[in-house]
Amino acid sequence: MAEAVDYKVIGTSPVRPDGVDKVTGRAQYGADMNLPNMIYGKVLRSPHAHARIKSVDLSRALAMPGVYAAISGADFPEAQHGEIGGEGGGDVADLAKNIMARDKVLYHGHAVAAVAARSVQLAEAALEVIDVEYELLPPVLDLDAAMAVDATLLDENCFTKNLPEKPDKPSNIAAVMQLARGDVEAGFADADVIVEGEYRIPMAHQGYIEPHACTASVNEGGQATVWCCTQGHFEFRAMASKVLNMNIADLKFIASEIGGGFGGKTVLYLEPLAILMSQKSHRPVKMTMTREEVFRATGPTSGTHCKVKVGAKKDGTLTAATAWLAYEAGAFAGAPMGPGAMSIFAPYALDNFHIEALDVLVNKPKVAAYRAPGAPQSMHAMECALDDLARELGMDPIDLRMKNAAEEGTQAPYGPKFPAIGFKACLEAAKKHPHYTRPVPEGAGRGVAAGFWFNVGMQSSAEVHINENGTVTVVEGNPDIGGSRASMCLMAAETLGVTYDQVRTLIGDTESTGFSNVTGGSRTTFATGMAVIQACEDIIAQCKARAAATWGVDEDQVEWEDGQAVPAPGVNADVKPLSLADIAAKAARTGGPLLGRASLNAQGAGASFAVNIADVRIDRDTGKVDVLSYTAIQDAGKAIHPAYVEGQMQGGAAQGIGWALNEEYIFNADGVMENAGFLDYRIPVASDLPMIDTQIIEVPNPSHPYGVRGVGETPIVAPLAVIANAVRDAAGQRINDLPFSPPRVLAALDNA
Amino acid sequence: MNKVQVSTSINGEEVEFLCEPQETLLDVLRETLDKTGTKEGCSTGDCGACSVMLDDRLVCSCLVLGVEAQGSEISTIEGMAGGDGLHPIQQKFLEHAALQCGICTPGLIVATKALLDKNPDPDEETIRYWLAGNLCRCTGYDKIVRAVQDAAKELAHPA
Amino acid sequence: MAKVEVPDHLLTLTGGEREVEVSANNFRELLIALEERWPESSVVLAKCAVAIDGQIYQDAFLEPLRPDSEVFFMQRIEGG
Asked: Is A147 helix (H, G, I), strand (E, B) or coil?
C-alpha cells in the first residue's frame, strides 16, 4: 500500500497552526479557564502512608464563611468494579478509591477530602479544620517488603491473579504473568557463554511542567461542563461517568491545551471532585494541583527489580534467556508488567525463553502510564546483559544485536510474527553513523542499546468540512500535545491535493466530535491520521459525484487529481477541471454542504524500533556523569512532519537520560517522598544535555495509507541502557542500580 | 486582610491593582489581571515557567510579591509581539519547532530575550547555562538552543 | 483449523493446555468454540488483545479467520 512515493506536502516541516497562540501566551491551558462566580477547590491529603480511616468530619470546614462545599469519600457512589484501560487493566473501583479514599489511605498524599471556597487561601484554611481520625498501619515501602511472606497487606481481598491455583492467602502481589517458549534448560546447556544481571530502577515521574488543573461547572439540571488538561477528554468523560455514576450525556469535557502528559494525564484525579463540589455549591469550581501534589499524588511509573540471564554461542547466536521482573504498582494493582514482559526480548529472535513478571502493591502513589510503560525498565536489563555478553565474546555490540535481530517473519515473544519492521535498518544505520565510527573521546565511555514499542491503533473519529471558499476544516478529538494538528493538516492536504495553508485542524470537545481514544500510545498520527485521511476520501467521493452531476457524466468517469475533479482518461467531455473551491462554491446547488466523516478502530499499528548511541565522561572527583554526545536512530515508518518526529526522539531521550542519571523518588521510613519538587527531583536542564542528533529511518508500515508508525514512546526505552552501558565503558565496572547520581557513581568507583 | 494598592507598568501600560500582601506577582498577573500567558509550573522558583522581566532583571514571578511591582516596569510574554507581528525570537521558536506542548515556551521566550538583550552573540554553552532555569520536559532543549542561535543571528542582522 | 495459543499465565483457564486447534470462520465463532472447550474462558479472553496472523487487535469481534490462521491471546496495551 505504501511504496516509495514523492509526496507533495507530507515530509515537510511547516509551522504548526496552533503555534502563534503558543508563543504569544494566548493558548489556554488547564489552569487558564476562569468563569464568572467561580470558586476554588483544594484537596486534603493523607499525612500517613498506610492507615484506616475511622472518621472524616467536614462540619467545621463547612461552617467557615466563604466555604461553599466540602466532600469526602462518603459523597461518592459506592465504588463499582469494572474495566478501564490497557496495560495492567485497571479496575474502576480502584480508580474511584484513588481519586478519594474510602476506608483506607494507601499512600502519603492520598486524597481524603476536598473543599471549595471563595479563594485558594480560604480553601486551604478550611482544609486545616477538617477532622480525620486515622488508625495507623505499618507502611510497605519496597518490593522486598511487599513480597515477604509475612508482609503487611494493603488489601486483605487481594489474591494473586493468574497463578495455576487460586491462592488461599491474600498477598501484595496482585498478579503475575508468564511468557515462555521452547526449553530454556536445553538452551543454556547449549550456550558457550552465559551472563546474568540484576538491576533496580527507581520510581520516576513523567515530569510534565503543567500541573493537573480543571474547572467544572454543573447546572441545576445536572449537566456538567468540565474544562481540563487531559490526554483524552472522551476517556476522562467515560471514567467520570463511572466514578460518579452519572450519565455520559450529562458530561461535557473540553480539552484545554495540555502542558505535557507522557501518559500521566490519561488518569482522572481532580475532575470528579470539582464536579461534585460544583453540584453542591451551584458555582463553577476551579482546582489546580501544586507541584508537590503532582509528585505525591499522581501516577509515577513503577520502580522495578529485574533479573535477567542470557546464553549465547561463541558466534553470538542467542540460545536462551530468562527474566524475572517485579514492578511496583503503588497503592492499587495495575503496574505495566505485561508490556514490560512482552517487550524485553522483542527485538531478538529467540527459540528458548522464560519471562515471569509481577504486579506488586506498595504504599506509594498508584502508578500511571509513562511513555512505553514497563519497557524502559525491562529492556534496560536485557540491553545491559547483551552489552556484557558482547564484551565477553569480544564482539561489537551492534554486530551481536544484528546477529539475532528480529525481522519480518520472526515470531515475537508475545506470539505473532512480525510484519515488516525496521530494527535491522536501525542497526545498520547505527553501525555506519559518524557517532559510532569516530573514536571515543579520551577518558570517555560509549554505549549502545535498542528500543522498541508496540504502538497501538484504537478508536478515532474525524469530520472534514469544506468551507464555501474551498478551504478545509478538520475536526478531530485528540488533544494536541506535540504538534499533531500540523500532521493532520499535512495528511488532509496531501489526500485532498491542496496546500497546507488551506487546511485548519481543530480539536472538538466531547459534544462536538466523535469518540476518540487518548492522545497517547503513539497512536495519534497513525489512527487519527487514518480517520482524517478516510474523511478526506469521503469528501473526494462526494466531490466526484458533484462534478459528475455538473458535467452530466457517470461518477466512475470522474477522477480526482491534484485537488481537482477531472474527467477520467478516455472520457469524452469538454469540461474544465473543477477544484475543491469551485465545487464548494456551488455546493448549495449540487446537494448541500460538503461534509466528510470517518470513524474507525485502527488496526495494523506498526512497531517502532530504535538504536541509540551515547558517549559519557565521569568526573572521578565528584561522580558526575556528563553526556558528551547522543544519537537517536528510530524507524518512523513515514515521518509526516519530520521536525516533530525528531522532537519526539529528542524529548524521549532527554527523559530517559534524566531517569538514568538523576531522577528517583526518595522516600523516608514513613513513606513520605522527600524530594517532591523540581529542585530535588532533578530532571534534565538545558546545561545537562548536548545536542541530540537524530536519524529517522523509514520502513513504511504497510497498514497505513502513508506508511506511518507511531514514534512517541519508543524514544524513552533505549536511553536507560545506553547510559548504563556508556557508564560501564567509562567506569570499567557495571553499576547495577539506577540512577547514576554522583554519590552512587562515586561510591562504586571508590569500591572498585 | 487589608489589600495593598499597587501602581506599576506592564508591557508599557500603566496598571493599578489591589492585592493581598502575601500574593505573588504570578498570582496577580494570572488571577487579578487575567494575563494567563505567564504559566505556573512549581511556585518554588525551580521551573522558570513564570519568568517575567522586573525592570531589567529576569525573575521568577512566583518568587516576587505583587507589592514589589510598585513603581516597576514589568514585561510579560503578552508584550513580546510588536507592531509588525511576532518578535524574531517567537518566530524562530516556531520555525525550529522549538516547542511541543508549549507550556514552558512563554518563560523560555522571555528568558531568551533577556539573554540576547544583554549578550547578542552567545555561544552554545552560554545559551544552555542561561536557560538552565527554564525547564522543558518535551523537547530535550536541542531545537530550543538552535532557535535561540538563529534568533541571535536575526536580531544582529535583520533579514 | 485455526491454531490458537494462550500465554502461560492464562493456562489456568485452559486446564494447562497452551495450544489448541479450532474450526471457526471469524473471531466471534472462535470465542464460542473456545468457551465450549474451556468453560468460562471466553469472558477473560474477550478482554485480551489478540493477534490474528500477525495483526494485533485490541478489540477483535468479527475479524475473519483463514483455515490456517494463527491466533495469539495477549494482554491489552494502551501506552502513555
From this structure: helix
Nearest to B38 among A25, A483, A651 (CB): A25
Which set of grid coordinates corresponds to residue A626? 556528563
pLDDT tens figures, A475-507:
999 999 999 999 999 999 999 999 999 999 999
pLDDT one-digit tens code per residue, A120-151: 999 999 999 999 999 999 999 999 999 999 99
- Cβ atoms of A146 and A362 closer than 8 Å: yes
Chain B hits for A679, CB-CB cut-off 8 Å, are 44, 46
Q: Hey, is A282 helix, strand or coil?
A: coil
- Closest-CA residue of C relative to A604 is C55
Query: pLDDT digits over B70-116, tens only?
Result: 999 999 999 999 888 999 999 999 999 999 999 999 999 999 999 99
**Bridge partners (DSSP) listed for residue A320:** A311
By C-alpha distance, which of A386, A372, A699 is closest to A521?
A372
Does A520 touch chain C if contact means CB atoms closer than 8 Å? Answer: yes
Residues of B in contact with A18 (CB under 8 A): 102
Residue type, A688: D
- Chain A touches chain C, with at least 3 Cβ pairs below 8 Å, answer yes
Contact A401, A427 (CB under 8 A): yes
Record: contact A22-B99, CB cut-off 8 A: yes
Residue A87's closest CA among A336, A298, A261, A262?
A336
| Neighboring chain A residues of B47 at a CB cutoff of 8 Å | 209, 291, 678
Cβ-contact C60, C76 below 8 angstroms: no
Structural domains in chain A? 19-24+458-601 (3.30.365.10), 33-137+206-297 (3.90.1170.50), 304-455+606-751 (3.30.365.10)
Residues of C with CB under 8 A from a CB of A: 5, 7-12, 47, 49, 51-59, 70, 72-80
Number of folded domains that form chain C = 1
The CATH number of residue B15's host domain is 3.10.20.30
- The answer to whether the bond into A65 is cis (omega within 30° of 0) is no
- pTM value > 0.90: yes
DSSP per-residue codes, A45-102: E-SSSSEEEEEEE-HHHHHSTTEEEEEEGGGSPPPPP-EE-STT-EEHHHHHHHHS-S
CATH number at residue C59: 3.10.20.30
Give the single-character DSSP code of A76: S
Cβ neighbours, 10 Å, residue A426: 29
User: In chain A, whose CA is at the least distance from the CA of B95?
Assistant: A15
Q: Print the domain residue range for C67.
A: 2-74
Q: In angstroms, rounded to a whole number, what is the distance separating the alpha carbons of residues A378 and C55?
A: 24
Residue A402 makes CB contacts below 8 A (sequence gap 6+) with: A424, A427, A428, A431
B33 part of contact set with chain A, CB < 8 Å: no
Q: Are residues B148 and B113 in the same domain?
A: yes
Q: Taking CA atoms, what residue in A is nearest to C72?
A: A415
CA dihedral in degrees (A366, A369, A374, A380; nearest 10)? -110
Q: What is the mean pLDDT of residues B19-44?
A: 97
Q: Which of B36, B51, B79 is the last residue of a domain?
A: B79
Helix (H, G, I), strand (E, B) or coil at C52: strand
Query: Cis before residue A373, ω within 30 degrees of 0?
Result: no
Report d(CA A489, CA A477) in Å as an integer.
Answer: 14
- Which value, in Å, is the radius of gyration of the alpha carbons in chain A? 27
Q: What is the pLDDT of residues A155-180, one digit of tens each?
A: 999 999 988 888 999 999 999 999 99
- The domain total for chain B is 2
Domain CATH code at residue B149: 1.10.150.120
Using an 8 Å Cβ cutoff, are A742 and A623 in contact?
yes
Domain end marker among B35, B55, B79: B79
User: Roughly how many angstroms between the first and final C-alpha of chain A, as a whole number?
Assistant: 56
ipTM passes above 0.95? yes
CB pairs under 8 A between A and B: 176
